[in-house]
Amino acid sequence: MKRSLFRTACAAFGLLASSSLALANAPQATSATAATTSPMQAAPDVNLHVQAPKTRYPANCLFANCPGTKVGLGKGDFIVRLSAMGLITNNTHSSVNLRNAPAPLNGRQGHLNATNQAAPEFTFEYFFTDHISLDAIAASTRHEAKAVGTKAGNVDVGSFWVLPPTLTLAWHFRPHKRFNPYAGIGITVAFFHNTSAAHNNLGLGNNTFNKLKLNPTVGPSFNLGFDYQVVGNWFFNFDIKQIVLLDTPIHINHHNSGAVGRVHAHDSINPTVVAAGIGYRF
After folding, report:
1. Do the beta carbons of residue 170 and residue 128 sit within 8 Å?
2. 3-class DSSP state for residue 18?
3. C-alpha angle 97/100/106, rounded to 5°?
4. Would you say 190 and 244 are in contact if contact means Cβ atoms under 8 Å apart?
5. Cα separation of 201 and 36, whole Å?
6. What is residue 115's three-state secondary structure?
7. How far from the centroid of its chain's Cα atoms is residue 36's Cα?
8. Of the four, 12, 116, 127, 258, which is 20 to 30 A from 79 by CA?
9. For strand 166-172 and strand 217-231, is the pairing parallel, antiparallel, or unpaired?
10. pLDDT 10s per residue in the chain (282 long)?
């Protein structure tokens, strides 16, 4: 009898203990379930994502390949270049004729030399299609001229500046490629300005030149070159032009028409223009 009462008491105590434990754990489970199943969501944290994600491209794309930077040159592009230019005068088919001079000096003999020169050059180029562009160059160079091998010996003629605006229509072989060679043909009009006659006397005492005049000249030009995209919209350019100025009449007046009234010279300068520089595409 006592053993039965003892067993009944132990069973009742165990049941009570398990019920208490279940009640203690019930609120936590309910809360977790409610938090999981509740349709209401917590407000986002305003401190998250306040900074834009980092990218490997800088904000300023002037000197970088940024998203959207086109590769190579093509239709609609406009590029401006600044180059170092060398103008090589070839001085072909030149002649010097001293008129109305004393017998030993009178007549045609010798040839004319104009010096080479270097100068900055600006180029403006627009692409009508992927392959065809039109460019114009702007530059001016100063040259010294000398008559060599005349009957009066080697004679300084003077100095002059030449402004040879050139329009060139070019064909580009590899549009939208970083390396893009081209060939072109154009026309050059050479204007001469700031001419200055040399002061020498040709061995005739105090007789000196007082005027030097060069007539404008027109001729075709041919060129080869390439553009190479360095970075972003910046391009390296190398260009060589052969300009054919067929004949440039040069007149040297003398203040004493009784001695050497005029010195007539002709010179086919036919310059070769070599340029290398940097261009920017707009």
Report:
1. no
2. helix
3. 50
4. no
5. 111
6. coil
7. 65
8. 116
9. unpaired
10. 445 545 655 555 555 555 555 544 555 444 444 444 455 555 555 554 445 444 444 556 777 677 778 899 999 999 999 999 999 988 777 777 766 655 555 666 677 788 999 999 999 999 999 999 999 999 999 998 887 877 667 777 788 899 999 999 999 999 999 999 999 999 999 998 988 877 665 554 444 456 777 888 899 999 999 999 999 899 999 999 999 987 676 766 655 444 455 666 667 788 999 999 999 999
> pTM for the complete prediction?
0.69
Q: Looking at this protein, which amino acid is placed at residue 62?
A: L
With H, G, I as helix, E, B as strand and everything else as coil, classify residue 15.
helix
Q: Which two tokens stand for residue 137?
A: 């160059």
Neighbours of 174 (CB within 10 A): 16
* Residue 182 contacts residue 224 (beta carbons within 8 Å): yes
Could you tell me the two tokens for 122? 């600006």
The residue among 170, 169, 164 whose CA lies nearest residue 188 is 164
Q: Per residue in 183-198, is it b (16+ CB within 10 Å) or e — as a string?
A: ebebebebebeebebb
What is the spatial distance between Cα 42 and Cα 240, in angstroms, rounded to a whole number?
A: 71
Instruction: Return the structure tokens found at 217.
Output: 């000249």
